[in-house]
Design goal:
The structure holds two protein chains of two kinds. By secondary structure, chain A is mainly alpha-helical. Chain A contains eight helices and no strands. The longest helix of chain A has about 40 residues. Chain B starts with a helix and ends with a helix. The chains are: A mainly alpha, B mainly alpha.
């Protein structure tokens, strides 16, 4: 059953059409939720909530935007709402980022040229660093660099301007770079300490 | 310490990563190791992000049954007349078609009979007269425990569990059996979480039926060889 037909039938309450739409999009929505919260039980809960909201509102879908964009907007909103509740406030997207103290932009420092990330990071490191990002940065980074959305799609999903999406993404990448460098330095320190301890143990 | 040229380059970095290439920025980048390091790091992060994105996770199967139960509870979905007929036909083919097809095999007939008895007990016992969750759960357990025990003992049967019959097909059947066992565990979890959810119970009975089907095939293969 093509997606457009499934949408039409789902609007009439057809159970198989709902299931078809669920099967078409469940992996992508679940992956998005899992990447945002890094917890399978919570990701399942959020996926269910996103689809519930979708199916509750499906009668109002008029096809002005792509169905998947609409669904992802709902999913991102569900996740952000959860993160806001966990954070104990009702912060806006702008407040969920981490502006530089002086200019509101990313910090303008380099890290040492000797420390390059190439060949030193893997998915686990990246995932840990992404977990530490503020929700706004995290959403844009995951949607663009991980899920592969374009800025114009992200602008629709996040209900912001294209320029805002680009700016958030750049800040997110720069913050990730800092976090990854910090992790590399910590690891180097630990390795040195372990080597020193093992030499001490041999004496 | 960053030079003024480096600061200017970093100010242009966002546009640079979006594909804009001003001549002065390019000239600075070629001569500055520090700025090259920043650009290389951002490329590495992007590349690692793409790798991560290529690995999509599969949500657990029980999520749909939970979602569907919720949608039905809210009255958002219904089976159309055509869907309903199709579902009835499928159900008949699944239960009765499967049952009559397997009647010549006495052990399997026993397993299927147990399944039917279990469903009858489930429908005529406390499940049809809901009082509280504990009773629903107890009713489901009363209905499924003997069936589960019988299927497990059938699985241990020397003919059924034989591993040396046409290895490739047998291995595939055993793999499917493991998948169905996993599915049964998930369904049981759903039933325990929502004992009054009819759909969750239907899925559990369906899962047991699938297991009986697979065991039937294994047993039949065993008998044919021996």
């Amino acid at each position: 059953m093509p997606e457009s037909e499934a949408i039409r039938l789902a609007q009439q309450g057809s159970a198989p059409a709902f299931e078809r739409l669920y099967r078409l999009h469940n992996r992508r929505v679940y992956s998005l939720c899992l990447r945002m919260v890094s917890n399978t039980a919570e990701a399942e809960d959020l996926t269910q909530e996103a689809f519930l909201q979708l199916f509750r509102k499906i009668a109002t879908f008029r096809g002005e935007s792509a169905f998947s964009t609409w669904l992802h907007r709902l999913a991102v909103n569900v996740v952000l709402m959860r993160l806001r509740k966990k954070g104990g406030n009702e912060a806006s997207l702008e407040e969920m980022t981490e502006p530089d103290e002086d200019s509101g932009g990313p910090r303008r420092d380099f890290g040492g040229p000797d420390l390059r990330l190439s060949g030193s990071i893997d998915r686990v490191n990246l995932q840990r660093a992404v977990e530490q990002l503020p929700p706004g940065y995290k959403s844009v980074f995951i949607l663009h660099d991980v899920q592969g959305y374009e800025h114009n799609e992200i602008a629709k999903i996040m209900e912001c301007s294209i320029g805002n999406s680009k700016s958030q993404l750049h800040k997110a990448r720069m913050r990730l770079r800092e976090l990854l460098h910090e992790a590399m330095r910590d690891k180097a320190r630990e390795d040195r300490k372990a080597a020193t301890d093992s030499r001490g143990g041999e004496d | 310490m960053a030079s003024d040229d480096c600061k200017r380059f970093l100010n242009q970095l966002e546009s640079w990563t979006e594909g804009e290439r001003p001549a002065n920025a390019g000239a600075h980048l070629r001569s500055c190791v520090r700025c090259q390091s920043v650009v290389a790091d951002l490329s590495t992060i992007q590349a690692e992000g793409r790798t991560w994105g290529a690995q999509e996770a599969e949500p657990p199967e029980h999520l749909w049954s939970l979602l569907r139960a919720q949608l039905e509870e809210e009255g958002l979905i219904h089976a159309t007349e055509a869907d309903g007929k199709a579902e009835v036909v499928a159900a008949k083919q699944g239960w009765f078609g499967g049952f009559f097809a397997h009647i010549p095999r006495p052990v399997l007939a026993g397993a299927y009979l147990s399944a039917l008895v279990a469903v009858c007990v489930a429908l005529s016992g406390p499940l049809s007269k809901p009082t509280n969750e504990a009773q629903w759960l107890e009713g489901t357990e009363v209905a499924t425990s003997p069936l589960s025990a019988q299927l497990n003992s059938f699985e241990q049967d020397p003919i059924t569990s034989s591993r040396d019959l046409n290895p490739a097909v047998t291995a595939s059947l055993h793999e499917n059996l493991a998948v169905v066992d996993n599915y049964i565990a998930l369904c049981k979890k759903s039933v325990q979480e929502e004992p009054q959810n009819e759909i969750a119970r239907d899925y559990l009975y369906g899962a047991y039926q699938q297991k009986a089907d697979l065991l039937a095939q294994l047993h039949e293969r065993g008998e044919n060889v021996q």
